[in-house]
Fold:
Amino acid sequence: MKKMIPVLLFVGLISGSLFGQWTAGTKSVGSLFSYSSTKADDDDKGTTTMSIEPSVEYFVMDNVSVQVMLQMDMVNNGNLDGDAAKAESTMHFGGGAKYYMGNIYAGGGLMMMSTNTGGPDPMKGNMLMVNAGYLYPLADGIYLDCGFNYTMGMGKWKMGDMEMDNKTANMGLGVGVAAYF
Structure:
């Protein structure tokens, strides 16, 4: 009987999520938040990254939305001193689309990325993003958004006159709040 409880919980979660219906004309505003801390070894003072990812969506047809996204990353490298420790920040701006199956969604988009590394010229490049998540209802029209995204580089990085291959790849998990009206 104890083995059946996780199975029943999973089936209940999935079947309950399939009853949601997102109709054409619905709008959404929300944001995901994520935090990470990386430490390579015992002597490493660590690097922390905080991301805020606001987005706006509009359902162009039932269960299909288009979105405009912004992502801001603030990086603090504990191994550097002074302003150099806080010099790196990243800004993404882009658009995409999502498909909803009840409260589960998947989508993707294109983003333009600009990274300030503390030098005179920012690094600029293009990214392809794929995302998925689950919306847990908190109140009428308000949801806890638990999401995953994978971002990969496209083309070349440009910094001033210099160019290099954009082989960037990033996976992230985030939690946030979204309102649908």
